[in-house]
């Protein structure tokens, strides 16, 4: 659709220029040029690039354990739907280290029963694992919610903290 509009704008500029060169006075088509400029800005390839956001920390798990967790979210902006990978490791009751990995889609939801403005990330697994709901805190950290949309742990240290992504050893 953008290409059709762009081609129509170019055709209009060429038609207007051809008519003016036939003896009419030369005037600049200011409106058409500004439309063309804005079309090129919309087609800028960097506008739709996915961003990577990484959160890490301690998260309560479904089995009652607390795991060291790294959540990586890829999306256009932090408040848009996207995809995720979730890596968790914990020590079970037999003192074995368990490592789990999951991936899927991130859905951004607004509101919970006691807070209509709360931002919730719902992690929907590609592997049919149960959905995980994470609430965004004012410091950009994430707290896991239980099925009643309440924090899954009373411990304030059980949250995933946003960390800058390093690209070529430079923090973004």
Name its key features.
single chain; 10 strands; two-stranded antiparallel ribbon; 19% helix; disordered N terminus; alpha+beta; 2 helices; 2 domains
Fold topology:
Layout: H1 2-20, H2 30-42, E1 51-60, E2 66-75, E3 82-91, E4 97-112, E5 115-125, E6 132-136, E7 142-145, E8 160-163, E9 166-167, E10 170-171
Antiparallel strand pairs: 1-2, 1-8, 2-3, 3-4, 4-5, 5-6, 6-7, 9-10
Helix pairs in contact: 1-2
Descriptive overview:
There is one protein chain. The chain is of the alpha+beta class. It folds into 2 domains: 2-42, no CATH class; 51-166, Lipocalin, CATH 2.40.128. The protein contains 2 helices and 10 strands, in the order ααββββββββββ. It has helices at residues 2-20, 30-42, and strands at 51-60, 66-75, 82-91, 97-112, 115-125, 132-136, 142-145, 160-163, 166-167, 170-171. The longest helix has 19 residues, at 2-20. It starts with a helix and ends with a strand. The model is unreliable at 1-19 and 27-45 (pLDDT under 50).
What is the number of helices? 2
CATH architecture of the largest domain: Beta Barrel
Strand content: 35-45%
DSSP strand tally: 10
> In this structure, how is the largest beta sheet organized?
8 strands, antiparallel
Q: Approximately how much helix is present in the residues?
A: 10-25%
Which class of the largest domain in CATH terms?
Mainly Beta
CATH topology of the largest domain: Lipocalin
| Radius of gyration over all CA atoms, rounded | 25 Å
Tell me the structural class: alpha+beta
> What's the arrangement of strands in the largest beta sheet?
7-6-5-4-3-2-1-8
List low-pLDDT spans: 1-19, 27-45
Number of domains: 2
Assembly type? single chain
Shape: globular
Order of H and E elements? HHEEEEEEEEEE
């Amino acid at each position: 659709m953008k290409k059709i509009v762009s081609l129509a704008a170019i055709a209009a500029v060429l038609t207007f220029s051809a008519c003016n060169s036939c003896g009419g006075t030369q005037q600049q088509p200011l409106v058409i040029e500004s439309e063309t400029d804005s079309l090129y800005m919309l087609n800028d390839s960097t506008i739709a690039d996915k961003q990577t956001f990484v959160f890490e920390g301690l998260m309560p798990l479904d089995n009652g354990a607390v795991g060291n967790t790294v959540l990586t979210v890829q999306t256009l902006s932090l408040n848009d739907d996207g995809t995720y990978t979730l890596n968790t490791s914990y020590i079970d009751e037999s003192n074995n280290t368990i490592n789990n990995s999951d991936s899927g889609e991130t859905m951004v939801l607004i509101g919970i029963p006691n807070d209509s403005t709360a931002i919730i990330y719902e992690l929907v697994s590609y592997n049919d694992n149960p959905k995980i709901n994470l609430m965004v805190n004012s410091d950009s950290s994430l707290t896991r919610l239980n099925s009643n949309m309440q924090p899954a742990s009373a411990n304030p240290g059980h949250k995933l903290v946003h960390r800058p992504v390093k690209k070529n050893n430079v923090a973004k």
